[in-house]
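Hey, I was hoping to borrow your eyes for a little while. There's a protein on my desk that I can't quite get my head around. The fold is given in discrete form, as structure tokens running alongside the sequence. I'd be grateful if you could look everything over and explain what you see. Here's the protein in full, and shout if anything looks odd to you:
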Amino acid sequence: MTENLNNIPNLEKVKLIAIDVDGTTLDDYGNLPEGLFSTMQAIMDKGIKVAVVSGRPIFNLRELFQPMTNDLIIISDNGGKAEFHGEPVYSESLSKKELETFWNYFEEHDHMGVLIGENEAYLSNNNSNVKEDIEFFMTDVTLVDTLAEVDSPITKISIYFPDKTSLQAYNDFYKKDFDKDYSVTIGGIDWVDIMPMSVSKGRAIKHLQDEFNIDKSETLVVADNYNDLSMMEEAEFSFAVASANDDIRAAAKYIGPSNNDGAVVKIMQAVLKAYELQEDSLSTNQ
């Protein structure tokens, strides 16, 4: 059951709001909710930090949130890279030797691996038939014949499953073969993501908390999928959107509206209302 957002206690204590993108902020057609940017600005005017935390590549998130790119904390690649005020905060990458291992693995199993670079993504020409599908999730996809043509540090590898069997592929292949040495997660029904072991959305949130002296009790997260679980654990106010799967809903402390009903905007508006009520109370008592 969706929460009455105005009845959630202590929202006036929130100092960091971290929002997932696909399935959480975006609706099912890939659209941002109405009023998002003005609500974000009102939140930041209260001194609250706003972080966009996504499995998408950094260049895609810059474009998607273009009007506010320099004001937001942007965390891409499931926590592999971060920017604030348009400046890099940190970045992780996979070695050339590791990339060769994965490239050969994809060819052996006929899987569609996408290498996520600094300013573009790389896809084997053998999978050119799905390039247009992949560009729904990320812009600037470059086709290459060999790994030697990839000349950018690679933060993350995403494996695309157009038949929406990522959970099965995760269990049958990637968890078994790579989970001991890498951070492997399900990025949605279409994707399995592989990053360096040190990378997760949860570690990214912890980094922000340490950087800005923000406590877990002052952190709010809005999420919908398995790759969000680690950051939900770092937040006192963990929200799953109503459209999230059952496992994510069970892990969340609160259930918000659906991503198709402007969940992120409505949750932020509830935080603003809590702040305003506190300000009114302080003003009355003076």
Remarks:
- The chain has two domains: 11-92+199-284, 96-195.
- The chain has a mean pLDDT of 95.
- The CA atoms of residues 75 and 82 lie 4 Å apart.
- The first strand starts at residue 16 and ends at 19.
